[in-house]
Specification:
Blueprint lengths: L9 E5 L4 H17 L2 E9 L6 H22 L3 E8 L1 H12 L3 E5 L7 H4 L2 H8 L4 E4 L8
Parallel strand pairs: 1-2, 1-4, 2-3, 4-5
Helix pairs in contact: 3-5
Length: about 140
């Protein structure tokens, strides 16, 4: 049965290819398998990076292939999305544009300078128009 992405409960999972973002994706997949829905994977390319078209194409291919692999491995619908911008605003903007109901993201915890200026996760939460669930990678959803 094909899933209509516009009718399903949608979870947005930011992806930076770190272990924490992979754990957030696995956590989200457990929720989707239990309660249904789909995962919109989001990779934000820093607008200040000055990437050329070839590099952006490579990032798009890497993200798309990763989403396909995870969809097969986790047995859930995973839709890849790539945007240019800064992570603090782009994640919330993408969630709104894509119709996501909840953002689920991993956090690396507050370390070093983040203790003074605030964590990336906190800044995403403050800028997001939709609820944000933060995972620390230590516990998994169990129902």
């Amino acid at each position: 049965m094909a899933i209509n992405p516009s009718l399903s409960f949608s979870y947005l999972v930011p992806l930076d290819f770190s272990e924490r973002s992979e754990q957030a994706l696995q956590y989200t997949a457990e929720i989707v398998r239990k309660y249904d829905g789909l995962i919109r994977l989001l990779h934000v390319v820093d607008e200040r990076s000055g990437y050329n078209d070839d590099t952006l194409l490579a990032i798009k291919q890497k993200t798309t292939e990763y989403a396909r692999e995870q969809q097969d491995a986790l047995n859930v619908t995973v839709i890849p999305n790539i945007v240019m911008g800064n992570i603090f605003n782009s994640i919330g903007e993408a969630a709104k544009k894509l119709g996501a109901h909840l953002i689920i993201m991993g956090t690396h915890g507050i370390q070093g300078i983040q203790f003074i200026i605030g964590s990336f996760a906190a800044r995403v939460i403050l800028a997001s128009p939709v609820p944000v669930l933060i995972t620390n990678g230590k516990k998994h959803f169990s129902g």
